[in-house]
């Protein structure tokens, strides 16, 4: 078996996507890449774009495992201002439990050797939890809100103005990131702007916040106060198309403000893996991005 860097190419990006689909499909569709309806062209494009983006910004953190010329696993990771983030890793089912995932994690982690903080998400797979715990991460169980939005609970829009964001707000959202988690998303925001449906921004004398929405999914939310976070989450859910179910993921116990909003609007709450952190506590109020944390 050999490990090589993932190239910024459509071929490598598609290889990564197919491995993820097969690996997470064996876990019942974890991470939204596995079993279920066939991916749409837009979903395929987003997955490939994320891989190519990280292969370009962080080539030392993105690795592919190959055996006899066949790709069998990968790890995508990045460094952002002192934080190492493992965005996604997967191994084909027939090669799991043979040390491939451990070797990929070790190689990707070298990219973040000098980083004081770390972040990743962990699926419900017990082997994954053991791997990240041994790597020094604290595991914070997470919940997920799903279901149709009860529109009756959205009659009061709230007094805090929320408006669409764009590239002119990148300095603002990076400053919010730094305040909450100690590091900005930096170049990742431009990719999210290009591939998500909308960026929502609240910027007042009392504080600031932002939120990305993709269809019915709240992809990332950060705010300087819980009041602003509640307003942004309610606005994002109000904008979910009426024929689309909503999803709000990666809720730790510290994000009760989001749990309360979801339950008030008729969403269902279930357990869903872990948020793994190193050198930090869960940012509050903050809902991580599944793609960029």
List the helices and strands and how they pair.
Elements: E1 2-5, H1 10-25, H2 41-57, E2 62-67, E3 70-80, E4 83-91, H3 100-109, E5 117-122, H4 126-134, E6 138-147, E7 163-164, H5 170-181, H6 188-195, E8 198-204, E9 207-214, E10 217-223, H7 226-238, E11 246-251, H8 256-264, E12 268-278, E13 286-287
Helix pairs in contact: 1-2
Describe this structure in words.
With 293 residues, the chain is of the alpha+beta class. The chain folds into two domains: 114 residues, 3-Layer(aba) Sandwich (Aminopeptidase), CATH 3.40.630.30; 135 residues, Aminopeptidase, CATH 3.40.630. It is 32% helix and 30% strand. It has eight helices and 13 strands. Strands 1, 2, 3, 4, 5, 6, 7, 8, 9, 10, 11, 12 and 13 form a 13-stranded mixed β-sheet that branches. Helix 1 packs across helix 2. The longest helix is centred in the first third of the chain and has 17 residues. The radius of gyration is 18 Å and the shape is globular. The relative contact order is 0.15.
- How confident is the prediction overall: mean pLDDT? 92
Total count of strands = 13
End-to-end distance, in Å? 30 Å
Radius of gyration over all CA atoms, rounded: 18 Å
Run of helices and strands: EHHEEEHEHEEHHEEEHEHEE
Extract low-pLDDT stretches: 29-34
Features:
alpha+beta; Aminopeptidase; 2 domains; 30% strand
Summarize the structure.
With 293 residues, the chain is an alpha+beta fold. 32% of the residues lie in helices and 30% in strands.
